[in-house]
Write a structure and sequence with these properties.
Elements: H1 2-23, H2 25-28, E1 42-48, H3 52-63, E2 70-77, H4 83-93, E3 97-102, H5 112-122, E4 127-132, E5 135-137, H6 142-147, E6 156-158, E7 161-163, H7 170-191, E8 203-206, H8 207-212, H9 228-234, E9 240-242, E10 250-252, H10 258-272, H11 277-302, H12 307-331, H13 341-361
Parallel strand pairs: 1-2, 1-4, 2-3, 6-9, 7-10
Antiparallel strand pairs: 4-8, 5-10, 6-8
Length: 368
């Protein structure tokens, strides 16, 4: 029995090597990104529901972008606070702001996808750039950097949506490490010709891609997934590219309590079960190998079975995973989380397993 476990452990290390070095390495070890400005007309789309404080602070940053031809489409998704009034004030203040007011619809009540659909239809430009109401661009070059990746063939651009750093917060390090790992995965698989997700905090696509897939219609009843489910459906090796120039990043406020973050991740994991079968399978294999890498050596070491080889394999795996994610962290400006890598990873693996079990027995809550 121990020999079987030992062989399984070796197989797990091999699988992990394939993921971290062969697959994720496509992004981790890629050259720094350079861009040539395209200057295509852009519509920046922001959907907000009860976000009055965030939009007060962040919409002015969108209005200060160094880009010659763009509009800002502000969508108020039937807010019950002062979001609409703030948007109306911005519409008067900035000539390139367009306001879309969404009233509750009996068929699509509280559905962000319905609100986004109205905003996409109202946009005057064919190239659309998305961010969330609680996000802000790192620089005034955000639009320029994201739009520079559009070509005749590449009509979907996946960007990086980071979270603000909170000093002396271990939870913040976990959140940013998980964000780093997720971005490394979807950037790498995009480079491999298998794009499977993007984040609504920072992504762009040509409007024709939206209508090719009939918008969100196939997953309209799923409350989340306006970003990743759409990309999973619309993206392919020919039409999708990535943008990881630091000037293209967006930042948002992270959750500050474990329960709030746990609830957020439950929604994300619940949405992933609607991905294409290949994408579900590769994600399941990766996370199963993560969990197995923690559990199997514990059994082997408890019985002192080939303990020198087991410890060597553990060290080898941590070395190549640390190197691969370290290079990715350098590109995404998240190097500080890698100092805590082994500890954060273990916490994250068991948290994800807990999320899987929790979602099996109850459904998470979605859009506000």
């Amino acid at each position: 029995m121990l020999l079987i476990i030992f062989c399984l452990f070796i197989a797990v290390v091999v699988v992990q090597f394939l993921y971290y070095v062969v697959f994720f390495g496509k992004f981790s070890f890629a050259k720094p990104q350079t861009s040539t400005p395209k200057r295509v007309p852009i519509s920046v789309i922001v959907c907000a529901k009860n976000e009055e404080e965030n939009v007060k602070n962040f919409v002015p940053l969108l209005a200060e972008q160094n880009y010659p031809d763009y509009e800002i489409v502000l969508i108020d998704d039937a807010s019950s606070d002062e979001t609409l009034e703030v948007f109306e004030a911005f519409e008067k203040q900035y000539s390139n702001v367009k306001l879309v007011k969404v009233e509750n619809n009996e068929a699509f009540w509280g559905n962000k996808k319905f609100a986004l659909t109205l905003g996409i239809k109202a946009a005057k430009n064919e190239y659309l750039l998305f961010t969330d109401a609680d996000c802000y661009p790192k620089s005034n070059e955000w639009i320029k950097e994201m739009s520079a990746n559009f070509t005749k063939e590449k009509t979907i651009v996946l960007g990086y949506g980071a979270y603000n750093k909170i000093k002396n917060s271990f939870l913040n390090k976990i959140i940013r490490f998980e964000t780093l790992l997720t971005a490394t995965q979807y950037f790498a698989w995009s480079k491999l010709g298998k794009p499977y997700m993007g984040v609504g905090r920072n992504m762009a696509y040509k409007r024709e891609e939206f209508f090719k897939t009939n918008g969100f219609i196939e997953h309209m009843k799923i409350r989340s997934g306006d970003d990743d489910l759409f990309i999973n459906q619309a993206a392919n090796s020919k039409n999708t590219t990535i943008c990881y120039n630091p000037e293209s990043f967006t930042y948002s406020k992270p959750k500050t309590t474990f329960n709030d973050w746990f609830t957020q991740k439950r929604r994300h994991v619940a949405t992933a079960k609607h991905y294409k079968s290949f994408d579900r399978s590769q994600l399941a294999l990766f996370y199963a190998s993560q969990l197995a890498f923690i559990l199997l050596p514990i059994i082997l070491l408890a019985f002192q079975f080939q303990w020198i080889i087991v410890l060597s394999l553990i060290g080898f795996r941590y070395l190549f995973a640390w190197i691969s994610l370290g290079f990715a962290a350098g590109k995404l400006k998240e190097k500080d989380v890698m100092y805590w890598f082994p500890i954060i990873e273990i916490v994250l693996i068991f948290t994800q397993f807990n999320i899987f079990l929790t979602n099996t027995f109850s459904k998470p809550v979605h859009w506000k």
